[in-house]
Design goal:
This protein has helices at 6-16, 28-41, 51-57, 59-71, 87-95, 110-126, 157-166, 192-201, 216-224, 234-250, 257-279, and strands spanning 20-24, 45-49, 77-81, 100-103, 130-135, 140-142, 145-147, 172-175, 206-208, 227-232. It is α/β, with parallel strands linked by helices and 288 residues long. It is globular, with a radius of gyration of 18 Å. The model is unreliable at 145-151 (pLDDT under 50).
């Protein structure tokens, strides 16, 4: 199956009351684990990239990797650009075959976020791909961006409604609702009431950022309230590393690289399948 478009994938998930897992890939092996895990679960999935990962490997190699992997499976695989503030990177992704992109203007004042999002919206729309946009400051570390707990700001409901009225064709909207990127240091304080206020008015699928570390009940409540895209980055990164280190501890004298790559793949794939099951998207591939 060719690379899928994220916008219809998420709208279907929103209407079906399940979440589509979005995993941040690191390299070809991590992307392979995502696609193969989705294939085994017969589920739609999103592979997304941070800007620094794109700068490491390049637009074309990543596009070629994901395109090749998606062509070999029967499930829809979307290719998405995660948090980005650079229109040149957005254009590069579109030219290389990404099917959706994110412009993150959440650090800007509301009106400036609107203005700059409009530029990205026009670029994405003219390129025939979906756009994700964000309001509020989601705490934690993502790429090279750090937002402390004190600086994290919940999205303003009225601003969210106004924002989405101006961009009715967004593929997905990311309001800050109390989740955080990275590893949680305490119990996440998710503003479920605020999320529900937004989704009672806004019909655009919602992205849940900072998914790693949430409980099954927390995921379920967010998904039932309209979160159709669920981001998993930190878990995938940790498993990428643990796949190597756990085998090294078990077999400290092993000098052949292939078993380490296989162990890494197996652990990441298992994590992918667990999240797909948790979000309710297993068996939903043919719904897209």
């Amino acid at each position: 199956m060719s690379i899928a478009y994220m916008k219809p994938m998420l709208k279907t998930a929103q209407n079906g009351n399940y979440g589509v897992a979005a995993f941040n890939m690191i390299d070809y092996n991590s992307a392979r684990a995502v696609v193969d895990g989705a294939q085994e679960m017969n589920a739609p999935v999103i592979i997304q990239l941070s800007v620094k990962t794109i700068k490491l490997w390049g637009f074309k190699p990543i596009g070629d990797w994901v395109r090749s992997l998606s062509n070999d499976v029967d499930v829809p695989v979307a290719l998405h650009l995660d948090h980005c503030t650079d229109l040149d990177v957005i254009r590069g992704c579109i030219d290389a075959g990404w099917t959706s992109v994110m412009f993150d203007g959440s650090a800007l004042p509301f009106e400036e976020n609107m203005r700059q999002t409009k530029l990205a919206y026009d670029v994405a729309t003219s390129g025939g791909v979906g756009l994700e946009a964000e309001i509020g400051a989601i705490g934690g570390t993502e790429d090279d961006k750090f937002v402390s707990e004190d600086d994290a700001i919940l999205a303003n409901v009225d601003e969210c409604i106004e924002f989405c009225k101006n961009f009715p064709e967004l593929a997905v909207f990311a309001p800050a609702i109390g989740t955080a990127h990275g590893v949680y240091k305490g119990e996440p304080k998710i503003a479920y009431d605020r999320l529900k206020e937004i989704t009672n008015v806004v019909d655009i699928p919602i992205a849940l950022h900072g998914g790693t570390g949430l409980t099954g009940d927390q995921f379920s409540r967010c998904i039932s309230s309209g979160c159709a895209k669920v981001n998993i980055s930190t878990m995938h990164k940790l498993q990428f590393i643990e796949g190597f280190t756990a085998l090294k501890v078990e077999k400290p004298t092993l000098g052949e690289p292939i078993p380490f790559i296989s162990a890494q793949y197996d652990l990441m794939k298992q994590g992918v399948m667990e999240m797909i099951s948790l979000f309710g998207s297993e068996g939903k591939a043919n719904k897209v």
